[in-house]
Amino acid sequence: MTLYPLKFKPISKYRIWGGNKLNTVLNKGFRNEDIGESWEISGVAGDETVVSEGELAGKTLKQLAQTFKGAFLGNHVYETFQDQFPLLIKFIDAKTPLSIQVHPHDPIAKERHNSFGKNEMWYIMDADKNAEIIVGFKSTLNKKTYTEHLENNQVLEVLNTVTTQAGDAFYIPTGRVHAIGAGVLLAEIQQTSDITYRIYDYNRVDKTTGKLRELHNDLALDVIDFEVHNEYKTKYDLLENTSNTLIHSHYFKSNIIALSSTIEKNYENIDSFIIYICTKGSFEIKVSSKSFIVNKGETILIPASIKEVTLVPKNTAEILEVYY
Fold first, then answer.
1. Which residue, among 238, 228, 252, has the nearest Cα to 121 in the 3D structure?
2. Are residues 278 and 317 in contact, defined by beta-carbon separation less than 8 angstroms?
3. CB atoms < 10 A from the CB of 202, how many?
4. For 40, phi and psi rounded to 5 degrees?
5. Which residues are annotated as catalytic?
């Protein structure tokens, strides 16, 4: 069987802070209300996305990796992860603010949860006027001063807020305290992990339990980076019809393509699958004699064995290009 560009059935996730932009802006067609996340490509146990079209319809990422190995993942990726897909791709819609949270790094996540850590990045697709995110601290703290603010219900006073708009990008390494603010719709690229330590949640009540949502401050204290960093927003170029470096890390690499005319992409030098996330417009992927349309709010995976593709915009498109 020949591998081809693969779309997956998104998994919708109710969230207490979720809204309706996944339907109204990204045309997801989810039936339930307050959907905060669309898991586009996921190998998380219990939440595996499956191929939606073609001969491989119904197959999970693990099944694809087990069957096609390096031809699907890339030889280096397969050697490193075997049948575990290393990335999780989401769209997130925050009608109200998310909890203040932090993620553990690989060693702690492995020890405590038998999981990968959770380094991630955000690409802002849509933001209401004056929408904000929280990232890092205003001034350098230590465990003692941080704990004092937490115990006095003053943690919001020491957190760094950034007004954001469409096109902004942020890298959120493990240990960095963060939260998505109200009115923000974004694409998230992260390690395959669902480990989050919630440290503050506005005293919200979980409607299923009738109780305050659980906090994880004991677990979080050992992983928080208390240092202040000079810049949190990523600066990048946006030249047309080429791959502009967005955020490259040990855990994933992301570029952005402003597509206004047909381009040829050659991936001979990249030993990895490629993921395209369409954040504006729509475009066509041509592979050999086949073509695939990708619209705003859709995600498609190019198996590692496919080294040449043609991208054709429908008017214009903006694409996040992601690989390991």
1. 252
2. yes
3. 14
4. -85, -50
5. 198
